[in-house]
Design brief:
It contains 8 helices and 11 strands. By secondary structure, the chain is an alpha+beta fold. The protein has a 4-stranded antiparallel beta sheet. Helix 7 packs across helix 8. The longest helix has 23 residues. It comes from Photorhabdus khanii NC19.
Length: 223
């Protein structure tokens, strides 16, 4: 590893206290991967060779079904782990999702064989992986449980969840991405956003949205 990457690796390890998660033996072979916007990190069904931890930027995680239709599984921000699902899957030799950078991003990469030797025997690393899997399961179940809601209620649920994580004011994702996450069309999404503005439940301008009062969302967003 070149000195610049060593410096960056040390910076992110210190920033996120990754030395409490990753053992020295696993850290020894870790590397820094820098991605430009719109560049792909993995493609669905490509060979599974590394685990990645997102430490800077944003990634889009997509899944394509057999009919070619795609679903946005997540818009990932740090610290998002890539490869945890594949690590424990019965057919874990292939990547499950297509992942691309939504903005310039930085990841730490760990060779799969090294992870199997030093990661799967480390309680601290396993705890980190379990927390990542738990978060993904929760977010997935959140979307699935809202399958029969109206578009407006799906949007309210999404906004409520994000307000809990980010506060009452945050930047809304691109309409195309958000529509794909909710499983609706961009036109339906725009109508729902307009409706929530008119009801004074939210106040949105450009990409920013402000939740005026979470209590106005009603009871159907509870989870």
């Amino acid at each position: 590893m070149c000195r610049d990457k060593e410096r960056k690796l040390t910076y992110y390890v210190d920033k996120y206290h990754l030395d409490k998660i990753i053992s020295p033996e696993l850290m020894e072979k870790s590397d820094v991967v820098e991605m430009k916007k719109n560049v792909y990190l993995t493609h669905q069904l490509s060979k599974f060779t590394h685990l990645y931890i997102l430490v800077e930027g944003k990634l889009k995680v997509e899944y394509y079904n057999i009919n070619g239709k795609f679903f946005v599984f997540a818009l990932a921000t740090p610290l998002f782990l890539i490869g945890d699902l594949e690590l424990f899957h019965s057919q874990g030799d292939s990547i499950m999702n297509t992942i691309s950078a939504q903005e310039p991003s930085v990841l730490l990469s760990m060779p799969l064989e090294r992870v199997k030797i030093f990661g799967l025997t480390d309680p601290r690393f396993l705890e980190f992986v379990c927390k990542q899997l738990s978060n993904k399961l929760f977010e997935s179940s959140l979307l699935q449980s809202g399958a029969f809601l109206t578009v407006e209620d799906k949007l309210k649920r999404f906004l409520y969840y994000n307000a809990k994580k980010k506060g009452s004011i945050f930047v809304l994702e691109k309409r195309e991405n958000l529509a794909a996450i909710l499983g609706v069309s961009v036109r339906q999404l725009n109508r729902a956003i307009k409706s929530l503005n008119e009801k004074e439940i939210i106040m949105s301008k450009n990409k920013q949205v402000k939740i005026i009062d979470c209590r106005l969302f009603g009871n159907n967003i509870e989870f």
